[in-house]
From TrEMBL:
The keyword Repeat does not apply. The chain crosses the membrane at residues 12-30, 42-64, 84-106, 112-135, 161-180. The lineage of its organism: Eukaryota, Metazoa, Chordata, Craniata, Vertebrata. Gene3D superfamilies: 3.60.21.10. It holds the Pfam family Metallophos. Signal peptide: none annotated. It comes from the Eukaryota. The gene is Tmppe. This is TMPPE metallophosphoesterase. InterPro entries: Calcineurin-like_PHP, Metallo-depent_PP-like, Metallophosphoesterase_sf. Residues 205-380 form the Calcineurin-like phosphoesterase domain. GO terms for molecular function: hydrolase activity.
Length: 438
């Protein structure tokens, strides 16, 4: 029987990841009610950071072998430039691994340079892993098809060296493009949506949709102030924020949230939780902070949006807690559609705020009379190659979907980004929605 010491490093990392994941399951299932609030919050974040790092370790070993070990037998291996390259690769991997710990130690009103660098390296790490794997697979397929699997020669050696060089070059180019794209202000996407049973007096009502701002290690007050200025310029009747506003506790990041107090939509500003609100384990404090800025959380509840032209004309605006609250066993929270829609009948139009598209799907299965659901969460994949995974994992990906004759779902690609300050194959968006009366 093989002992743990005899296992290859990749296998040891996989075992470590399994142990951390098992500890996460145990703490969520058996320790959630026994630990105090602060301890539970830190334990969850530490476990998530350790789990991500143990998984990344397997990829980091592959990166090191592909970009460093491959060249150790070459004539340039003893040169000063190669020594600098080894240091650069090591620092790159170290920064990528450290990114997950910045949530614990480096969150303030504005991002620290170290956090921006660490998350940039994480984004480049994901892209590099993808290209190393893809080019390696192409190489193996070529060898198989050419019938050269057992042959070795100068050509094979040159192709082996070319693979990491090409992967690094592609990563550098795409990282630069992604950083440039994410540094631009969000685009304003104007959408018209017919809403069944919307009163004629509320025709052309303007709703601005924000989602996934992710205040935290790489998004701070300056970017939020820019978003608020753009929203105010649109002069919406209603502003809604559908989750993942922040990745930090309310007390720590309060100064960065202050621009939200300038939102002044005449029919109100509303908020529902996303999964990251529950990762902060600070939802109650966030609710209180948002209320101080005249932003109303919809905690499995609804409000009547009354027409400015006629007090008898209204529609129901409802919001549900994010489904992650159930997974985390977050006390007093969890998606409760029945409670959220209490008093909302099919005689009036119903608009639902639900952070995750899967929650939108579940809601429509229970209440097909919902006319419009506004969601976020997917980020449009945010960066290549994560786009494909986000597309496959969500029933609605990005943009407007018609479900049935009188129901629509709109999924925002996010107003900022999570952690990695990059966008590839997606664009940050502020959505200007005009509601049309049929």
């Amino acid at each position: 029987m093989i002992s743990f010491k005899q296992l290859p490093v990749e296998a040891k990392a996989a075992v470590a990841a399994g142990v951390v994941f098992f500890s996460m399951v145990l703490s969520r299932s058996y320790l959630a009610e026994k630990l105090d609030f602060r301890t539970r919050r830190w334990l969850l974040r530490l476990q998530m950071a350790l789990f991500a790092n143990t998984l990344m370790l397997m990829g980091s070993l592959h990166v090191w072998r592909s970009t460093v070990t491959t060249f150790t037998r070459s004539s340039a291996a003893s040169s000063f430039c190669f020594m600098l390259w080894k240091i650069a690769v090591f620092m790159f991997l170290a920064l990528a691994h450290s990114s997950f710990f910045t949530l614990l130690f480096l969150v303030a009103e504005e991002p620290y340079f170290f956090s921006l660098a660490a998350y940039t390296c994480l984004g480049a790490y994901i892209i590099l892993i993808f290209f190393l794997f893809t080019l390696g697979s192409v190489e193996q397929a070529y060898k198989f098809l050419a019938g050269r699997g057992a042959k070795a020669g100068t050509g094979n050696k040159s192709r082996t060296a070319l693979k990491p060089v090409l992967a690094v070059l592609l990563t550098v180019v795409l990282t630069a493009v992604g950083l440039l794209n994410a540094s631009q202000p969000p685009t304003v996407n104007s959408v018209e949506i017919p809403v069944h049973k919307l009163p004629s007096t509320m025709n052309n009502l303007k709703v601005v949709l924000l989602s996934d701002i992710h205040l935290g290690p790489t998004v701070g007050k300056t970017k939020l102030a820019m978003i608020v200025r753009m929203v105010k310029a649109l002069k919406p009747d209603i502003t809604v924020i559908v989750g993942d506003l922040s990745d930090a506790e309310a007390k720590i990041i309060r100064p960065a949230v202050e621009p939200l107090g300038e939102l002044d939509s005449p029919l109100g500003t509303y908020f529902v939780t996303g999964n990251h609100e529950y990762y902060t384990s600070d939802v109650s404090n966030w609710f209180e902070l948002l209320k101080s800025f005249n932003i109303q959380p919809l905690h499995n509840e609804n409000v009547k949006i009354v027409s400015p032209k006629s007090a008898s004309d209204w529609f129901c605006l409802a919001g549900v807690d994010d489904i992650e609250a159930d997974v985390l066993r977050y006390s007093g929270h969890g998606m409760d559609l029945k409670k959220a829609l209490r008093g909302c009948s099919s005689e009036h139009a119903i608009v639902l705020l639900a952070h995750q598209p899967i929650a939108a799907k579940w809601a429509l299965q229970d209440r097909p009379d919902i006319n419009l659901i506004l969601s976020g969460h997917t980020h449009g994949g945010q960066i290549f190659p994560l786009n494909a995974g986000a597309y496959l994992l969500n029933p609605f990906f990005v943009g407007l979907y018609q479900v049935g004759q009188n129901t629509f779902v709109y999924v925002s690609p996010g107003t900022m980004y999570y952690g990695i300050p990059m966008r590839l194959g997606s664009r940050a968006e502020i959505t200007e929605i005009t509601l049309r009366s049929p």
